[in-house]
Structures are given as C-alpha cells and as structure tokens.
Design goal:
The chain has about 375 residues and is mostly helical. It has one domain. The protein is about 65% helix and about 0% strand. The protein contains 13 helices and no strands. The model has no long low-confidence stretch (mean pLDDT about 75). It is found in: Membrane. InterPro entries: AA-permease/SLC12A_dom, APC_YAT.
Length: about 375
C-alpha cells in the first residue's frame, strides 16, 4: 500500500501535463506532497471529509462516463455515428502481442493482468475500517458483499464501454509522451468530436490520484521519475506496487486457508462466524494458484529476444526477492515455526457468539432498507 503513493503522485503530474507540459514535474510533486502533509496533520474529521468529497467526485465521474459513453456509442455524439460493437468485429476484441495469432492474443491478455490488478490493489482495506466503525461485525460483512457490485459497475462496465468506443489499433493508445492523451475515455470523446469532456475527465482523475496518495507514505520516491519520462516511471511504480499487492493477497489466501483448516481441525463450525464465504476452501485454493501464476509470469515479456532490460526485470521481480528476504529475517529473529492447526488460538470465537445476537438485532432496527443496500 505504502509504495502506491509515488505511483499516484506520478499519475497526477502526468495528467496535469495534458494542459501544461512546460513546467518541471518536480514542481507538481512538491505541491502535492505539501498539501498531503497538511491534510494528514489535520484532525481525523477534516481528513475523512476530504476523502469523502474526493470519493463522491470519482463516483460521479464513473457514472457520468458510463452514461456519456453509451450515448456516444448509440449515435448521440456530434458526428452522429452509431458505433455499437463495430470495433469488436474490425479490428476485433483482442490484439496480438509479441507473437502473431491466438498465442499473441493470449499473451496480450496476460500482459494486461498487471494493469488490471493495479486498479484492484488495496481493495481489501475496507476491513481495516472496522476499528473506526460502529457495529463492525455487521458493517464490514455487508461492505464486502457490496464490493462485487461496485466492481461490476465501476470497473467491468466502464471497461466494456471503453472497448466499444475505442479500437485497439488507435495510434493514441500507444503513445508515451507523459500526458493523458492516451486515456481511453479521453480518446473516445475526442474521436466523437467532444473536446470539453477530456479536460473535465483529467481534472477529476487528477484529484482521484491525489486523494489516494494522501492516505499513503513513501511519497518522496516520486522524485525518481525526474530522471526519466514520467509515464515510464509510472509504469515502473505500477509494476512494483501491483506485484506487492498480489503477494499481499497471496498471504491473505494462505492465512485464510490456515484459519479454515484450523476451524475444521478443532471442530468449530463456520456458521458461528459473522461472515461465511461460499465454496470454500476451493475458491481460496484456486485464487492462490492464480496469484502464484500471475506473480511468477508477470514479467514474461522481458525474456523475449530484444526486450531484456534490467530496470523492467527488477520492477516485476524485485518484490519477490524482498518478500523472501523479509520472511527469512523474521523467521531468524522470531525463531518460531509454523503453528500446528490444533494449537491455533481461536478462543475469541466465543466472544463473537456473545456479541453477535445483540449487534445484529440493533443494526436491523437502526438501518433503513436503502442504507442496508449501500453499506
């Protein structure tokens, strides 16, 4: 999570280049860092309200983009061109990468997993809010359940709209000038002859990147981008932070599997828990296996002839070395092995049973129907 901050600050500066690329990015980095430091020195109420404000902007932006994208796709743009699924037929839904044919299309899909995973990074932090939430045993499970619908609407539907509006062979998708002109939504509206929306999109996305960085640390790392193109360094940060996040998810999966089998070994039913996910432990095993594959083969492209660079290789695989090193150091100093399943401390489940009935009853009485759906 912490390393995400420089990536977001780099992204914010890149977005500003859309309007003005004559000012050194270091100026924007310094301005953003100063504002973030001031916000973090404020009381929790001010910080929380600022994050809520930025979150509302992001939600309104995504909903607006989906609606505007549908209007453009159905012929409501100034050009009057009805696009439909035209670009899914010509040039097609998948672009070959590195090698021609279906193999190249699969490699292109695989290479996009890192960029896609970056968007989902830290989605698990909703559980961290439990310490500052009233009735967390009710609120957190409900929030987790709603995560599926938020991902479906704000991520999957928006990507579907982009795929309908912009063909993969659009030359603007491949530019790396350090500005935001390669944003798919910006390209889509520029192709439709709508020139005002790109500036609005970039302004709100810039605040989005800035607000996320406000909750993280390691911000001075963003100055590393001054020695290279900001979009290139942003790609490095994306790789490093995404792989770190995937390793974190893998640890979560391993921890859950240990918890699951500890419950089974000690004869404790999962029905006593505040939340019980379905299809376990099979989903956890499948997810863990998929994460291992993505982490190990994330940087496969550097091994193709003529594509090897040390910097790119390190951005994909340095996290693995860091994790192994930290694990060995922790094991050396703690001198504690893996706890046997029958010795795992699950005594707090009795406290859950004691609190669960009263909390659920009070929550059902206090929440209206629409509020239950939102949370």
């Amino acid at each position: 999570m912490a390393v995400t901050a420089p990536a977001e600050l780099s992204a914010a500066a890149t977005l500003i280049d859309f309007w003005n690329n004559y000012i050194n990015p270091a100026v924007w980095y310094s301005v953003f860092i100063m504002i973030i430091v001031v916000i973090n020195f404020c009381e929790v109420k001010i910080y929380g309200e600022s994050e809520v404000f930025f979150a509302i902007l992001k939600i309104l932006l995504i909903v607006g983009l989906i609606i505007a994208g549908l209007v453009v796709d159905l012929g409501g743009s100034p050009s009057g061109d009805r696009i439909g699924f035209r670009y899914w037929k010509n040039p097609g839904p998948f672009n070959a990468y590195l090698v021609p044919g279906n193999t190249g299309k699969f490699l292109g899909f695989w290479s996009s997993l890192i960029s896609a995973a970056y968007s989902y990074a830290n989605i698990q932090v909703v559980a961290i809010t439990g310490a500052e939430t009233k009735n967390p045993r009710v609120i957190i499970p409900n929030a987790i359940r709603m995560t599926f619908w938020r991902v479906l609407i704000f991520y999957v539907v928006s990507i579907l709209i982009v795929g309908m509006l912009v063909p993969y062979d659009d030359p603007n998708l491949g530019i790396s000038t350090g500005d935001a002109q390669q944003s798919p939504f910006v390209i889509a509206f520029q192709r439709a002859g709508i020139n005002v929306l790109p500036s609005i999109i970039n302004a709100i996305v810039c605040t989005s990147a800035f607000s996320l960085a406000a909750s993280l640390i390691f911000m001075p790392l963003v100055y590393l981008s001054l020695g290279s193109n900001s979009s290139v360094v942003f790609g490095w940060f994306v790789n490093i932070t995404t792989i770190a996040g995937l390793i974190g998810w893998l640890i979560i999966e391993v921890t859950y599997l240990r918890f699951f089998y500890a419950l089974k070994t000690q004869g404790i039913s999962r029905d006593r828990l505040a939340y019980k996910s379905p299809f376990q432990p099979y989903l956890a095993w499948v997810t863990a296996g998929a994460l291992i594959l993505v982490v190990l083969f994330s940087g496969y492209s550097v091994f193709f002839p003529g594509r090897w660079t040390v910097s790119t290789f390190l951005t994909y695989y340095v996290d693995i070395a860091i994790f192994v090193f930290l694990y060995i150091v922790a094991f050396f100093f703690s001198r504690s092995g893996i706890v046997a399943l029958e010795d795992v401390d699950l005594s707090e489940i009795a406290d859950v049973d004691h609190e669960k009935a009263g909390i659920l009853h009070s929550a059902d009485q206090n929440f209206s129907r629409w509020r239950k759906w939102i949370i």
